[in-house]
Design goal:
- This protein is 85% helix and 0% strand.
- By secondary structure, it is mainly alpha-helical.
- Helix 2 runs antiparallel to helix 3.
């Protein structure tokens, strides 16, 4: 995996940084929605969406950490 990272340009890193920002924002939004829903099904769905975004964020961070 490290060989892929050696070829990341500053533009690539900017795109990854933007993606991390979007994932974090989407996770917070889903968490906020989950807290506001009255319906248990909607609360669970929003919590699942938040978890999905968290997993994507963590995976992207793990990729970057593997590049060090």
């Amino acid at each position: 995996m490290a060989s892929q990272c050696c070829h990341l340009t500053s533009k690539d890193l900017t795109v990854i940084e933007d993606q991390l920002t979007h994932l974090a924002t989407a996770c917070r939004a889903a968490q906020n929605c989950s807290a506001q829903f009255q319906s248990p099904q909607m609360r669970d769905l929003a919590a699942a969406v938040a978890q999905h975004h968290t997993q994507q964020y963590d995976a992207l961070c793990a990729f970057l950490n593997g590049c060090q």
